Amino acid sequence: xxxxxxxxxAELAGVAYDPPALAGPGEGDIAAAAGMSPEDRQAMxxxxxxxxxxxxxxxxxxVEEWEQLIRALAVLERLxxxxxxxxxxxxxxxxxxxxLSFLRQTAVETGLNP
Length: 114
Known about the structure:
6 helices; mainly alpha; Serine Threonine Protein Phosphatase 5, Tetratricopeptide repeat
């Protein structure tokens, strides 16, 4: 749904945009998580979020990856950190109207200050 909207916004802005596939846990990871204790599952989730955050901080990434991190932090109830990541993403995507619109919509949907 969101990935479709960014394509629409990009088209309206006159930008050709083909979003890449998002990385995430594979079927094996999901199956393994189902057998974990709640504490181990939470630790696995926190580890995946930390890896994504570290990678975006050092290598950058697509707007969808930034959105994925913002939403993950919001779900984990780490809103101040999500706000910081959102603010950083806005700077990184400056001058890219479709991406900025997508990020602002994400902020609204997650309760952040756009």
